[in-house]
Every structure is written in structure tokens, then in C-alpha cells.
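Researcher: Going back to the complex we discussed earlier. I've cleaned up the inputs and rechecked each line, so this should be the final set. Can you rerun the prediction on the complete assembly and write out the structure?
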Amino acid sequence: MLHYDKDDNGIVTLTLDMPDRSANVWNQASMDAFSDAMEKAAADESCTGIVIASAKKVFLAGADLDALKAMAFGEKNAEALNETVGALSVLLRRLETCGKPVAAAIEGAALGGGFELALACHHRVVGDDPRIQLGMPEAQLGLLPGAGGTQRLPRLIGVQAAMPLLMEGKQVDPAKALQLGMIHAVVPMGETVAAAKKWVAENPTAVQPWDVKGFKVPGGGSDDPKVLNTFMVATAMLNAKTYKNYPAGQAIASCLFEGLRTTLDAGLLVEKRYFLKLLLDPVAGAMIRTMFLSLQDANKLVRRPEGIEKKAPKKLGVLGGGLMGSGIAFVAAKKGIDVVVIDVSEEKAANAVAYATERLDKAIARKRGTEEKKAATLARITPTTDYAALADCDLVIEAVFEDRDVKAAVTRAADKVLGDDALIGSNTSTLPITGLAKASSRPANFIGLHFFSPVEKMPLVEVIVAEQTSDRTLAWALDAVQALGKTPIVVNDSRGFYTSRVFGTYITEGSAMLSEGIAPALIENAGKMSGMPMPPLALADEVGLALMYQVGVQTKKDLGDAAPHNPSQDVLEVLVAQQDRAGKRSKRGFYDYGEAGKALWSGLAEHFPPKAEQPTAQDLIERFLYAQCVEAARCMDAGVVRAVEDADVGAILGWGFAPYTGGPLSYIDRIGAAAFVKRADELAAAYGDRFSPPPLLREMAEEGRGFYA
Amino acid sequence: MADCFIYDAVRTPRGKGRASGSLHTIAPIDLAKTVLTAVVDRNELDSAVIEDVILGCVEPVKEQGGNIARVAALYAGYDQSVPGMQINRFCASGLVATNYAAARVMSGQSEAVVGGGLESMSRVPMGASRGPWATDPAVASETMFVPQGISADLIATLYGYSRRELDELSARSQDRAALAWKEGRFAKSIVPVKDMNGITVLDHDEHMRPGTTAESLGKLKASFTQLGEQYGFDAIAMQRYPQVERIEHVHHAGNSSGIVDGAAAILLGSKELGERFGLKPRARIKGFASIGSEPTIMLTGPADAARRALKKAGMGVGDIDLWEINEAFAAVVMRFAEDLGLDHDIVNVNGGAIAMGHPLGATGAMILGTLLDELERTGKSTGVAALCVGAGMGTATVIERVEA
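Model: Rerun complete. Updated structure for the full complex:
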């Protein structure tokens, strides 16, 4: 667990080295081991000081998330949890008051509880490597640094500097940490232990600044008038941004507000209470599970079929130099993969090079790239009209116009030149893959790879398994997604797959509300308050009203009377067909887009007169979330999504579904299947069948089970 | 229930609430002493009959702290048997102090009580006492705190008051105040502030800007745009009022109340007090009330407070001849008048705080005195004084002039 070495000068080095793990973390076993070793050193009169180091690449990555998740989803008994939380905080307080000088020798990431350990040392020496991450990212997990982080950091660097680091969970490199005063020294890698020992030897009576009589918080404590203003503005800006959906930010601000007017020990007590409060809140567990554990699993390709050798693509083909094709080519080139981009003309194919150039130049302007890297990246992209260039590609991704005939034509052309093992992936967002695969002579090698726009920013790829897609194809496609640095979710083939299908219900609900006479500003504000990244009408404008209208018309044509009534189609009929308002690109949609920004189109009130009795925002928020949750549950019911975890990860990464919920299925679990079904039935009676829960949910309600447990 | 009468009402002039203001060199306790002394001296009263001094103060810290009412009474030379206490209902403190003084008389527990208030905003600035509402992250989040200026802009946005309308109302406040001063309509109540040597320091409201027009006000920059747009307070207000697409920032220094220094005192007593000391009652306290209202919009409480006070008095809106609504912000006056269906011809007829200023703890008692003076001047009978209050409250008092 850790190595205990005492040198000739009496300095004890505790080297963290957890067995069977790539990184050190805090859990009961490591805390016990650390406590024993520390007490041994403290009790040893010949011990002159303690140095803490790590035998691993990571210094200490924080708390064991599985353990945290277990606590978050365990019994929510405040009294019982109160007995267990805070143990690390007590341990670290003991460390800094154990009577020996203590220094941390950090040569790898020290995050969360890892950095809190460092903060409880009298001295922090860090290796000179900009890749070393230092900070306390707990806020991103819906938690707070609960082992003194909210109390020691501001006492070290002041409220103003500490607040954003803590509330946003920011991480910094050693140089920045030194500049901020979070650490004391940066020395060459490999020399931190020696430097730490030297400091310990020279400072036998080290005391933390906050334990010195007369200590004052740099810049003023939380009862200082200047600092009070900071709290007022920080709280407002936090709530303006998060709509009070994320309790961690406020809890952290409160720890500072309440703790920085008193002693460290009293502050630690306050911190413990807020930590417990967050642990009892459903947000932390949901975020830890989906945004960290499930995401990690997806990135590790847990959905990959077993027994198939790994094969990342060496050379990638992209059919179509449009926005998506260019984005995919750019991402691949950045990852060191050679890319051939095919289009009907040299100019169109060269779009991919222009796309990459523009972004690489921007990176250089922001000092995040170099001319050398740019040249190397661009050199990997080969634009051409010649399909023969695809011959040695491991994977070809089709990213042409959403038209079956066009897709079939390019697929056939690629098919002719590709080797037997090569895969063909289609980047369609809606067209069923099984149909598209028919254009290929090797449907077993055909798979859907749905990227999101802009490709270089959006982390998700929806991997769609068609009827004839082989396990080997799925395995290699997942390898390819991983090689591109993206997160895959695996879904089965159907119209709209998973993400497009569920995402659409949010926009539809916004339009439906408008047609009912709900004030558009109320709809938009409720959309934002629900935790969605954009309000529904503004989002519809972004997607394009004309496009959505055409899709609706086409669906009606395809399915005739069997087409389900889509309430948004009536609204689009008015805006697109009657009023020629096509969306943001034409500067006319639900909004008018002018130089001063956008404003809701004043004509909306005329075409959709607001009714006298308006619902509450809470009513609308519930409808937005339920509409999406019901559709996600239907996808589970129909076997569209293979794993519950993928449905939640895909929702948050794919279309930004309210992250505090942990995803639509986590949200259903949080409400409880029975309560959810009851409410969904009421909504269905009031607003239409789109809220009707699928059989799976009714079954779950009856059996009292959730998606996760 | 016993009758409670107003026997006298006095106030200091209002000095500009900054270091260059005339009253800045006068300590807050001296402002209080000025009105406490006047209210006994003018009535040749033995201070020992006064059974309490209740003073409102919104920032009761530093030299306004430590129960300034009791200390001011002692300092003003009141008999040591006169106790004192300071109360705080934010901007309505002066009126609430008066109401509580009246309640003591109406309950039969006191014969004479002085109510009033003080605020030296130049010496103990707004926000000096802090408190958790704006700054404690848990409290500010739970209560959806926004600064008052955002609330005022929200009222204007929600009820569709244009910048021009607000500026016109404000210019009218200046015109009315200027005329009132010219005609000496405040003369009965004003007690000039003198220094320790008896030299007059200020004998008029110095915050006024006669000649102000809606056009000149139209040139001023809105005050709360940055707070709202950059610091997130518009978004907070819209979370409580999601029907609003965006907050229009329409309030500025010229259509909001002025920051000033001043104090006021009102002598309240039973019928017997008048008989015993030969004092003539000037008005009867008919009813009063304070209410709580939605705290984010914050400033829409006074209409409901007035309704409740009228109900206690057994009266209706139509029974009232004159109204005083504190001009905290122009939109507050607009909303109050609209809510109660009042004609602006009987509202703030001698101007208000936009012209003359709003010394927080004192204003309630000041506007009650102004109302009484005007009822007497015009021979009218009934009046209501009301104020909007921070954190979503309202206070109102109904009075009826006693015929000579």
C-alpha cells in the first residue's frame, strides 16, 4: 500500500503505492495504511520529518469513485453517513499537527483528495512537467473537496483566487500552481524527494500558516466587506448559469463563506456538513455514475465483443468533404491517422484541408499549436476524387448528403477498391443502416458511425449495429472510435437510432407548447431551467425550421395515415410554409436575428396567441424531461440501445441532456418507475400519446425495479 | 381600542448623502437629537410623559448602532425615565416606528410615545450592516436575491412601463417638490439643523434639481445594466419570472430616490395627553399594516399593505383623499397607482424621494408628516402613506385629519 523508509537523517519517506491499481486513490484501506505509517513516524522520536511521495505515475488521483458511488446510492441515512464521512479530513488535520515537518514530493497528478493531502503538508514540491495536473475537480462530480480543500486553499491563496478553482473544479499545471501560490517550489523531475527532504531538514518546527496565532486570510476573510461582494456576485453568477440544478457550487461557496470567518477546525466541521449534504443529494451519485464511471467504461470499450484482436485504423477514408467529412478527417489527422478525403471535385475534397487549416491556425493564434504540428497534421490529409486512393484504408466513413441514392453510389464506388477486411461506416444521423448496407457487397463489414457536429468538439459517436453487421466489424469500429479519441455508445438499427430520436422530442415539445398558447419566453426560459444547453425554440432555429418541416412532410408521405401526429408540424407549417421563416441561417425563425442579437419574433403572439392562464415553469420543465425520458425508455423497450449506461452517457454527450440528472434513465430511476409511469400517464392524457410509457416501464413499475437496480 | 392622535410631526431638511453634503459633518445622533428636541420644545412638553422613543434605522451599525434611540433620547436631554429602542424594517422603518408607537397608545399601554427615524447615508452607507441576504450563498440562493434596482427594472419590464413614462413621473416629482418648497408647504415640519454653536447648517432639502425635464433625464445612463447582464442578476430575476424574455434596464440616478441624510420624529398620544397638556390633536391614526410579498420583485408590497391597512380602518381606496407612496424608484410609484387605480393627481402631490431624497430609516415618518401638512393645507380629510420595503415587504398607515 505504501513504503516506509527512514533515511540516515531520520527523515521518513512514505511512498504511496497501491497494489493492483494504476493510480493511488483514497479508500478505507489506503487511509488505514497511511494513518498507521504516519502515527509510526510521529511516535518515533528519532524521526525528524516526513516526506510523502508516490511510486506511481499519478501522485494520488483522489477518492475511490466506486466507493463514493456506493455511498451515494446506498441508504440515504444522514446519521449513519455522518459517522463515515470526514475520516480523511480528520486524518489530514492530524498529519499537519503531528509534530513533524511534512513535505509532499509530487511528480504526477495530485487531484481531489490527492491535492488535499498535499495541502495538509507544510511544504509542496512539484516536478517540472506541464502534464502534471493539480487541483480539486470534485465540483464536476457534484461534490466538494471534503478533506479540507475548501478551507486550506483559500487560507493559502485568498478567497478570490480559490473560489473559481474550487467552484469549477479547475486543474492547473505546476507553473500556474506556483504562480497562484498553491505550491512552494517546482524542481526538475526526479528531484522532488531530495528537495522535500532538504526543506524538512531545514524546517524542523514547521507549522501551517493557519495554525500561527494572528493568522489572516490573504485578501481578507469572508467577513471582509471587499470579499463579501465577491460572494454576492459569485452566487448570482453561479445560479444564473446553473439554474440551481447543481448544488455543489453553492455548497462550496458556503464552505468558504461560513468557514473563512472562523478557525480551521470550525471550518472543517462546516465543510463536512456540506459534503454530507451533497452526498445525500441525488445529483452527485448520478453524475459520478454516468459522467465518470460509465463514461470511463464506454471509453474502455466495455461493449466490445470479446475474443477479437484489436485493430486501430492506420489509414482512414472519408467520403464527402462537407462539414462532417472534414471534421472527421481533421480529428483523424490530429490523432496521427492518414486520411483520404473523396469528393466529386478536387475543390470539394480540398474543403477538408481548408477546414483543418482554419482550426489549426486558430490553435496557433491561441498558442495551443505550432507551425510544425500544423504541417504534420495537414500532410496526413489527402484530398482527391480518385477512389483508388482508398485501396489500403482500414475503414471508410461515408459522410455525404442524407440521400439514399447518393449514399448507395459512393458506397458502391468505395466497395470496389477496398480490401476484404476493410470496414465501411456511414455517418448518417437518421437513415437505417441495414438499408444502406445493401449497397455494399460486404454488409457484414458495414456499420453506422454517427458523429456529432462540430466533430472536433463533440465527444460522442453513436455506433449503429445493422442486421448483418458482424461482431468483428463492431469490435474494429469501436477500436477506430477509440483511436479517434471519441466515446462510443452501441445501438441497434432503427429510424433515428437513439440520439436523433430522443433529441427530437425536446424540440417537438417546445413547439407543442407554443401551439397550445404558452408564452414563448416562458417556454424558452423553462427549457434553460430544465438543464438543457439551449432553449427549444432557439435550438429549432439552429437545426433549421425548413429542414425539420421537410422531414415532417417526408415522414407523412412515407407513412401516410400511420404517421403519428407531430404537434410541431402544425407550428412549422405556419412558420415555414406560411411565413417563410426558415431558421437561423436565414435570420428568420422563431427568433429574429439582428446585429444586436436575437429576439423572439413578435409575430408569434399573433399566430399563437398566449392563453390567459399560463402554466408554471416547473410544469414545462417536467414536460421537457418526461418527453425525453419516455422516448429513451421506448428505445430501451425496443432494444435500440444495448446498455442502460450507454443510453445515459449518449444522452449527455450527444445532445446535452440535463447532466445533473445523470441521463434520462437515471432520472427515471431517481423518480422511481411507479411514480414516473403514473405521472407520464397523466401527461399522456393531457398532452398526447407521446408521453405514454412503454410496456417495459410499466413492468418495471410493477416489479419495483429500476434501470440500474 | 383607544384613539391615537398625531400631535406633531417634525423633520430635518435632507442633505445630500455624500461627503460634500451639508449634513455630512453632523453625526447621525445629532440629527436624531435635532428632531427629538424639537418635538418636545415646540409643544412645551415635559419629556418625562413620553413613555418610549422608537426610532427606525436601516444601517444600525457604527455610529448608528447600539440602540441609538435610547442614547439619542438621553443625549437630547430627555428625562432618564424615557426608554428608547431602534427598529429596522428597511425602508419603512420610520413609518413602522410610528405605527408601533401608535399601537402602544391604542392598546392603552402608553399615553405618549415618539416614533420616527434617522439615517446618515453619507456616514453609514447603504449595506454597512451587511447581513446574510445578499452575500450568504445558501441564503441568497434560497431566496433568489437580486439588488433592488434589478427588482425595479423587473417591475417596469413586467408591467410595461417605458423609460419615458418613468422619466416623466420623475420630472413631475421635481416640479412638485420645487413648487411645494416655493410655497412653503413644508414650513410647518422643517427643523433646520444647526451646529453646536447654533449656526444653521441646512434649512432646505438640497438634493432637488429644479428644472429637470423628462428630456434631460432621458440622457442618463441606466444604472443596473452591468449588475443585471454581467453579474447574473437578470437571469436570477427571470428564473422567478420566466415569462420575461429580457429585463429592460430603465432606472437611473434621476428616476430613483436620492441618497440623503436626515431624521424625523412624530409625537403620538392619547386623547388625555392633549387634554392634560393643552395640545391640539392634528390627525387620528385610523389603521396600519405591514405585509410580506414576493422578495425577488421585492417592491410591489405597498399596495397590499395599503389595502390591509384600509381594511383595518374599515375604509376603502375610494375613501382616501391623498396618497404618499415613497418614490424609491419611479416604477414603484407607477405600479402602486396602477394596482390601486389611483389618479396621479392625488399621489405625491408635493413630490417625493426622487426629488428630495430617501434617508432610509427616516423616510416613513417624513412622508407621514408631509401627508398631514398637505391635508391641513388643503382642508382634505384622509390620507395614506406607504412604502415599498427590501426583501419583499410593504408598510402603510391610514390617517384622518382632526377638524380644528
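Model: Worth noting: The first helix of chain B runs from residue 28 to 41.
Researcher: Good, that matches what I expected from the previous run.
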